[in-house]
Structures are given as structure tokens and as C-alpha cells.
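Box 3.1. Reading complex inputs
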Amino acid sequence: MQSIGEAFSIAIALVLSGDSDLLAIVFLSLYVSVTATLIACLLGFPLGALVATRRFRGRGVLLVVMNALMGLPPVVVGLLVYLHLSRAGPLGFLGLLYTPTAMIIAQTILIMPIVAALSRQVLEDLHGEYAEQFRSLSLTPIQTIQALVWDGRFALLTVALAGFGRAVAEVGAVMIVGGNIDHLTRVMTTAIALETSKGNLGLALGLGIVLMVIALGVNAAVHGLRLTARRHAYV
Amino acid sequence: MKPTDVLCAAVMALMVPIPVQAADSILVQSTTSTANSGLYDHLLPAFSEATGIKVRVVAVGTGQAIRNARNCDGDVLLVHAKSAELAFVRDGYGTSRSDLMYNDFVIVGPLADPAGIKGQSNASTALRAIAQSGELFASRGDDSGTHKKESALWQDAGVDAIAASGAWYRETGSGMGATLNAAIGMGAYTLTDRATWIGFGGKADYGILAEGDAALFNQYGVIPVNPAKCPTVHAEAAQTFVDWLLSPTGQTAISTYEVDGQQLFFANAKAGGS
Amino acid sequence: MFDASGQIARSAGGTMMPLRVHQLGLCVEGNTLLQGIDLTLSSGGCTVIMGPNGAGKSLFLRALHGLIEPTCGSIDWNGLPAAEATRHQSLIFQKPVLLRRSVLANVEFVLKARGLDRSDALAVLEHVGLAHKARQPARLLSGGEQQRLALARALATRPKVLLMDEPTASLDPAATRAIETVVAGACANGLRVILVSHDIGQARRMADDVVFLNAGSIAEHQSSNDFFDQPKSAAARDFLAGRIPA
């Protein structure tokens, strides 16, 4: 059995080697998860803001569903997307199965509820502060939502980060809809799963360490941004 | 520029599609052992250079590979479960099945060998010994080619292993590598194809204990997916790939692949399909 | 429009917004908070609404602005009900609600929301003496500066009526004077101002007329001079004399 220490030295050697395959896998991981996060935010922030600011029939049900979907198992999402994108499925004609686009779709579905539910919480608090002023300004619902999302942008960044973290770390969904195809749909997590199944635990853990370092870097960058924002009393 | 514009632009830029599978590329639904052992890394560059056709491989268990191919999510099926393969062709999903190559299954276990099966060349006897000793046995339990073979071996041995599921018979429900990891983790015996075992990186104090029975023969077959059933397949390129695999060039390439000085697969294509 | 001197120039005809309140009442969960309010205001000048805590001053102001739906009676702003008059008015809160943006962006936000020319924003800031802080984060301003920014934002949309709910209650005298100067200037240029205040000195300085509210009803409505010289109601006399009714 390989030791953890060995895994670290493998990780460092991997990074130092600048191996082009590794770089491609890292890039694809980031491409897929960042894109999924952006789309999930684009849809999830307005949805969260809508639920935070408006009272409508079925709002309570929507809230419960949104919160429950935060716990969606990645494999289930992967299967659902597979069944739709498969050639035998309703969207099979698009030819998207086993492409990065399919992985983006799966991860977007996976993290949209997280982004929507958490942003609802953030924006509801902010709306409590702004609501009367906004009504005094006779803002339209769309203007209200736009202003809330923009003013909550630094808090929402943390929400986006939570979504990104889940997307970049999940393996179940991308494995099924991406197929872990070398040089096409292999990302960090599926590469780790593959190396684990080959018994190369040291290499698998080394890749895992690289993934964690990337996640750490992204989080540090956002934290820095938030610190700046806090100095400006924008948080 | 408004922040929303920036976001939109960013998303648009990111959404520029990475080219969807082009006409000159095919997708192989494959069993894991051929992929994990590195065989494709050895074969595919030569094939692509000769024909200009790119080959992408999805490596899953044989059962799942066949199901995916039945959904038309692949151009070529390369697995090792002959009766399921024949059914696939019979149901019209494949044009024809050909023997491609073989290797064999082996029973691996802790070198200390508490069930005392070392050197046993009769698989049924070895499995009966494991069952009687009460030592753990890790099964794929995932409807894969290896799992199908293992179930048949238990039947030959006259042992109802399923009845002991959860006791000494442990079904991992995962791939070969994960099952090997699990077996080594809990000190269990398990059945694996030789190629995966040779390529497996975390052998620890495990080794091959029983091998050489004719019943452990492991035949791989290759089937182009039928365009009559699946109009979207790249039938021509798929046929080119299968023909190449079965040709002397492809067969030689298979037989010359070695890991640690050991040959993993033995080409045995016959002229014409079966 | 904001002319070169930074003063608010208006055409007299466009600003006419007389107010008629008839038998206004507000009940919430069985509690009567406002009752039987009749009030008529002309379209110019500065009216100060005074009264002890709990008299209903803030509720009345919000009802006039259309933020609260009264349970009975009617509000008529030159033919418009309160909810439709909101967009012709600005309301300033005791605690300014500023966006998490720069000083300038706070003004630009309301201009854009109303479809007005955003390039006016700097002139508006100039008018309240905040142009030099245009690029600073709004929420790092001092209390007085924050309220001046709220005032700039309120005036930027060229309202016909400016409603203010104790805008200087938590400010020091210098900051209070800065606010009053701007408001008085706007009022002199024809803006209708309705100001809720606890501050008797401020009411003396600003008011053309005073509405004195007590227990959800109007105790009296007089010109400023008459109110301070000869308050008619006992409640107003107690209030002005600093007596706390038992």
C-alpha cells in the first residue's frame, strides 16, 4: 500500500512535470465546472431573487423542493441526463452524449438548486433592508431583482463558490454522461476514479491533491475579493 | 458594459461548442479490462495513423456497455460475454460478432492463502474450498463479463454463493479495479481477468493462486453496431475499425502488447464472423 | 432640471400636486392606528408633521406615499391615488438605505431606474456638496453625508413632492443644517415638502404650516406662526412645553 507521503511527492512531481495530459485534464475540469457554475448562477440567482422578493401561489412548495434538490445525488442526475441525451432518448438527435457539453448540462442541473436556494437566503436578507426604499422608488420587479443581485454580488460569490465546489468535486454525473473518454471528457475526478480502479492509489491521491490545490486557489482568490469588498462596506 | 452583459458574454464564449463527435471519429463501448490494461493506448495510435479515424473509448462493465450500445450510444461494442453478445446481434443491434482475442481469468487472494487453494488448477475445486473454509470472496456483482463468468463457475462448483451474500460472499457492485481494491482491503479472494491483474498497481501481498483451468478461458468479441437499428452510427468507420482489428496487422498489434514483459491478450480472430 | 448654479429650476405648472385626504383610517389586527384624518394641502411650501411617539406620523407619511394601503378613506394627489402618486414623489427615511455601491452609482441607479439621463448624477452630488466623494463607497460616508446622499438621490428624480421621515433625528447640528439648507432651497424653488419631525427647532425653521398628530388623529393644523404662538390643542401645548402627559 502506497503511503500518503508518496502521494504528495507524486502530486508535486505531477505539477512540476507540466505534463500536457494533466494540464488538459485540469483545464477541462475547470472549463466544465466553471461553465456549469456560470449557467447555474445565471439561472439560479434570478430564481432565488424571485422567490426571495415575490409572494405567489406555490412559493412554499417551490422553496421546499429547491431545498430538497440541494441533496440531489450526482449519479441520479447523471442517469437522468444520460436517459435524455442518449441516442435512444428524446434529445439524442443533438449528439451531445459523451461531450463536455453533456457534462456541463449535468453539473448545471446538479448545482442549480444549491445556487437558487442559497441565493434566496442571501437575497431575502438583503431585500428586508431594501424593500421599502425600492417600493418608494417604484422599481419594477425586474429592476428590484437586478439591483438585489448586483448589491448582493459578493455574498452571491460565496454561493457560486459552493456550487463550483460541488461541481468540480463530483464524479458520478460526469462519469455517466461524459464517459471518461481520454482526451475528450476525462476530468480530474474521473481520472482519479480511473487510477483508483487501476490500483494506482498513489497517483489517484496525487491527482486528488492537485484538485484540492486548485479548489484552494479558487477559494483564496474569492476570499481576497471579498476582503476588498468588505473594506468598501459592500458586503 | 453592464455586469450582466459581461456575464452573458462570458457564458457565450464558454459555450462555443467543443466539436461534437465528427464523422471521422467513432465511439467504442468497451469492457474495462481492455481499457485499463492500456491495450487501446497501444492499438489506437497505429489505427488512427493508418486510417485517419479517431477512436474514443467509453470503458464500463460489459453489461453496461451492451446496454449503452442498445441505446445506440456507440459505434462498436468490444466486450467479453459471448452469449450476451450473440443475443445483441440476434436482436438486430449488431451486424455480426467476431472473436477478437482471449486471455484467461485467474483467482487471486492473499499469499498466506487461508483457504489453501494455491496451485489448484480446477476452478470449481478452488471455489468450493473457499466456500467451505468460510474465507471471504469478493464478487463484482455488477452483471459484467467477469461477473457472468464467476456466476457460471459457482454453478459448476455446486455452491449457492448468493445465499451467502453479505456473509462470506461480498458483492461490491463495482468495476474490476474497485473490486480488487475492496478484496485486498478485506482480505478476500476474487476472480479477475489476467490483464487487469497484471496492470493493477496496488497488489500488496496478493498473488495468483489458481489458474489454468479451461473453464477460465476469457474470450473477447467485437461487434459493429447495426445502422439499420441505429441510423446515427458511423457504420463505415466502425466497420473499418473492426476489419483492422481482425486483420493480420491488428492481430499482430494485439499479440505484441506486453506489460512487465507479459503478454496480456492473445489474438484469435478467425476468418469471417461467428 | 439642474441648472448651472446647481439649483433646481422647475416650471410652475408641472409641479402642481395639491393633496386632499378624506376620512383616512388604518386598522391593523384590530388596532386603530390612524383615524378620521381630513387634510388639504396646497401644492407649495413645507408642511411639518409633529406629534409624540406612536401618534402615527410615520404611518401617515407612508400612507401618503402609497407604501401603506389605508383601510378606509381616500388620498388624492391632484387626482391620483397614493399608490399612483408614488413615482412623482421621493421619501427620505430616518436611516438612509444606501446601495452597496459608490456614491455616484447610488444616484445613477435611481436616474436609470426612472429612465432619466445618468449624466445628471454628478451635478446632483455637487448640489449637496458630495461631488468630491463621488467615487467613494456610499456606506463608508459619515451619517450626515449618508443622509445628504439620500437627499441627492431623492431630488435627482425631480419629484413633485419630497416626503421626509425624521431625516435629521440622528445627526449633529452641522449635518442637520446642511440638510435643512438643501431642503429649504428646493422648497423655495417650488418643491412640495412634507417633513415628519420631533425637533421643535427644526419645525420652527422649516415649517410653513404644522400638522399635529396625536393618537392617530389630527389634533390641529395651523400655520407655523399660529401653531407656535397659540397651539389650540392640549396635546400640542404639552408637547411644545416639554411636558410629558401622564
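In summary: The CA atoms of residues 41 and 99 of chain C lie 33 Å apart.
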